[in-house]
Amino acid sequence: MTPAAVSRMISRLEEHLGIALFVRQPGGVDVTAPGRILFDAIAQGFSGIDNALREIEDHKTGLETITLSASTGFTTHWMMPRMADFKRAFPKVDLRFQLVMGELAGEVHDVDIGMRFGSGPDALHEAAYIIPEILIPISNNSYRDNHLRDGSWCQEIDKLAHLDDMRMAWSNLFVPGNVNDSMKFLDYAIVVQAALLGQGVAFGWLNVIAHWLSTGALVPARPWLIVTQRQCLFLRSRKKPLRPIVADVQDWIIAELNRDVMGVNERYPELGLKPIIEKNAKG
After folding, report:
1. Which PANTHER family does the UniProt record give (predicted)?
2. Which of 115, 132, 138, 279 could be cross-linked to 70 through a Cys-Cys bond (beta carbons 3.0 to 4.6 Å apart)?
3. How many degrees, rounded to 5, is the angle at CA 96 between CA 123 and CA 210?
4. Strands 226-237 and 113-118
């Protein structure tokens, strides 16, 4: 079907309904409020069909498919080192990923659960708390040792790896130091990889780097952290029923991630993570 044919069919539908679904402009079209209502209903219908087809496939294969929306950083640097443990815990689960390269934000669509930063449930989503949003300056041991003089942090940082669209003023976070050079990447997984390879200092989201910190592959570049006003959450669409197996996988990831965080606390008590985690869990 050609675009012109689609346009004619939409025009006929609008004529039948007696209301505009789109506002036509020289640069394109904008959906109207009634158009959004119709879109949401159609999308929900297709989502239901997709869920039904997936259940049929699951019955045929004996596996239950779960789709997780998460950052490339979390998937690469936390989930992948855990996949053997995950397979042992859930041998009949086919875990699939919807990958987010940049900022971990936005609605959760067409997946079972999505990791996001936010403040809690909203009109569209149920929410399960994981940990607070915590950022720590990180590097590998070799890089940190080369940038410590007489037990104090150098006044200058040779290289800082960070996301290209990061909103924070990175150099200001390292007061009183200055950044000589920066490496900007579109994918946060590469930012963490740069720190692992000793290419510079990076700012690490704890939900992504907890595994490497707990094993010592990454170290705090200095004993300092930022706790934001946001939380790391698992979001789920209110339109999508929570299957028991999805709840089990969600709980497993939350428990394992918190286990890693406690491992980081034991290895680096100077960060003071434990009281922060306990305070936010109670809150």
Report:
1. HTH-TYPE TRANSCRIPTIONAL REGULATOR, HTH-TYPE TRANSCRIPTIONAL REGULATOR TRPI
2. 115
3. 80
4. antiparallel
Specify the CATH number for the domain of residue 23: 1.10.10.10
- Output 39-46 pairs: Cβ under 8 A, ≥24 positions apart: 43/109, 44/239
Which pTM was predicted? 0.74
Whole-angstrom distance, CA of residue 113 vs CA of residue 252: 13
Strands 226-237 and 125-139: antiparallel
Name, in order, each residue with C-beta under 8 angstroms of 206's C-beta and a sequence gap of 6 or more. 131, 133, 134, 135, 136, 213, 225, 232, 261, 264
Helix, strand, coil abundance in the chain, percent, nearest 5: 45, 30, 25
In whole angstroms, give the CA distance from residue 107 to residue 114: 9
Structural domain count of the chain? 2
Q: In Å, how far are 70, 74, 118, 167 from 103, measured between CA atoms?
A: 10, 12, 12, 10
Nearest to 136 by CA among 75, 221, 216, 231: 221
Peptide bond into 241 cis (omega under 30): no
